[in-house]
UniProtKB/TrEMBL annotation:
It comes from the Bacteria. Pfam families: ABC2_membrane_2. GO terms for cellular component: plasma membrane. The chain crosses the membrane at residues 20-40, 60-84, 111-132, 152-170, 177-198, 249-270. One of its GO terms (molecular function) is ABC-type transporter activity. Keywords: Membrane, Transmembrane, Transmembrane helix. This is ABC transporter permease. The lineage of its organism: Bacteria, Pseudomonadati, Bacteroidota, Flavobacteriia, Flavobacteriales.
């Protein structure tokens, strides 16, 4: 495994664009550090400091940081599809197979790299969240600090799932731009399935349950938006906006299932393709 990861990291390091995108994908999630220190002066009447609003208190901070940090995954998604596009355009895929790398090892090298970067991103956002929370949170009890740390697991699984999908699209079309365009097509298809389910069942709740099993929606549902939750902490009497924001085991299983399927399909494509 380490040999395959080292091989892939060497390829990425030699590519200037990949180096820059990896750097950006790791740095941008730390904008949450900047947000935590922002002070907004409203024409001298009062100053709004985000860190003093309570949104960086434990345990809600785990939910907030992982949700917003997940939006920066698109930068590394470009790296993932570029890994495949460069293999075909630079003929390195064929050369690697000639040098003794099996097709299974080739796909595994990509998957191990995805897991490696997802783990690194999770550890970094976890450390950033922990230290921001220690600075701003009024709660210091260990039971409260680590109460919702499962959002980090959801963040990790979400990254692995999304990058596995990008790997599959990269293998399918062999071009970075087209692979990313397929994400938009899949997004539209999932909404068409939703409307189809709505026409069949005549109920939006059932249609959304169907949509929750689809790739992009299942990844999104791992970490629900925290906006309503923030409002709930400020206005607890508004029970009508209460919702289930927890991380559920079956949501993780669904995304892991899609991840395994995308890796398997990527391998099957490579195995059957004439190089």
């Amino acid at each position: 495994m380490l040999r395959l990861i080292q091989l892939e990291l060497q390829k990425l390091w030699l590519n200037k664009v990949s180096r820059a995108l990896i750097f950006v994908s790791f740095i941008l999630p730390f904008t949450v550090l900047v947000l935590s220190s922002i002070k907004i002066n409203f024409f001298g009447f009062f100053t709004l400091e985000l860190g003093e609003l309570g949104i960086f208190n434990f345990p809600i901070i785990w939910h907030i940081t992982t949700f917003f940090a997940s939006y920066f995954k698109f930068f590394f998604a470009i790296v993932v599809v570029s890994m495949i596009g460069n293999e075909y355009s630079n003929k390195t895929l064929k050369q690697n197979l000639i040098d003794g790398l099996s097709k299974k090892e080739f796909i595994l090298s990509k998957f191990y790299t995805i897991v490696f970067f997802s783990l690194c991103a999770t550890l970094l956002i976890g450390l950033a969240t922990f230290f921001i929370g220690l600075y701003y949170s009024s709660y210091t009890e260990a039971a409260i600090i680590f109460r919702e740390v499962e959002f980090l697991l959801a963040y990790f699984v979400k990254l692995v799932g999304f990058f596995s999908l990008c790997l599959f699209f990269g293998m399918l079309v062999k071009r970075s731009a087209f692979a990313l365009a397929f994400l938009v097509v899949l997004y539209i298809v999932e909404w068409l399935i939703f409307w189809g389910a709505y026409e069949v069942f005549g109920n939006s709740d059932t249609a959304f349950k169907v949509k929750n099993f689809l790739p992009l929606e299942s990844m999104y549902k791992l970490i629900d938006q925290p906006i309503q939750r923030i409002v709930m902490t400020k206005f607890p009497e508004k029970t009508e906006i209460a919702y289930d924001y927890a991380v559920h085991w079956y949501e993780i299983v669904i995304v892991l299932g899609w991840s395994a399927l995308f890796i398997f399909l990527s391998y099957r494509l490579l195995k059957k393709r004439d190089l």
